[in-house]
Specification:
Strand content: 35-45%
Largest sheet: 6 strands, antiparallel
Distance between the termini: 74 Å
Shape: globular
Helix content: 25-40%
Structural class: alpha+beta
Order of helices and strands: HEEEEEHEEHEEH
Number of strands: 9
Radius of gyration: 18 Å
């Protein structure tokens, strides 16, 4: 009987660990985002992918047009369908303080927070996210907030791709 109980406990524990791992974006789940317009780099960012049961894609991007720098945090997927709020927090920055409140543009588009942030503050936000990770929170009116950790550091290839991209975006305005 004790052997059967131990096996059942082990199986339950393994299931709990697997379920937790499935909702945690690991550093190798971060992917760089690079946007081009007419061969020029205009947008840089990162995407965190969360698998089942959450099925969520969260993106943080920066776009530079002339002297204007716009940051966009967005979440898309079944887990974000009824969200009324979205935030990303790192060790020193929180998009709740940096960006206007997130809005759901249409029923079929992702929830997003968009606004202008001082370039230095934005750089700290990306640095913290790529080196130390962060926490994504989706707020709902009628149910608890869904909080998902992004574990850092990101892979060196992701950090390098973002830094190269950001260098290209910001050097074009000088």
């Amino acid at each position: 009987m004790a052997v059967g109980t131990a096996s059942l406990r082990s199986a339950l524990l393994a299931g709990i660990i697997a379920a937790h791992a499935a909702t945690t974006a690991r550093a190798n789940d971060l992917a760089p985002i690079i946007g081009l317009v007419d061969g020029r780099v205009t947008t840089c960012g990162v995407r965190a992918a969360f698998d089942a049961p959450t099925r969520l894609s969260v993106e943080l991007v920066v776009t530079r047009t002339g002297d204007t720098t716009v940051f966009v945090l967005s979440a898309d997927g079944p887990a974000a369908a009824d969200a009324i709020g979205l935030s990303l927090a790192t060790v020193s920055q929180d998009t709740n303080r940096l960006l206007p409140p997130a809005v759901l543009a249409t029923a079929t588009s992702p929830i997003r927070a968009r606004g202008s942030i001082d370039a230095t503050v934005g750089a700290f936000l990306f640095r913290d996210l790529l080196v130390g990770g962060g926490t994504v929170s989706l707020m709902f009116g009628d149910r608890p907030t869904l909080t998902l950790p992004i574990v850092g550091p990101a892979l060196p290839s992701v950090r390098a791709a973002y830094l190269q991209c950001a260098g290209d975006v910001f050097s074009q305005t000088r």
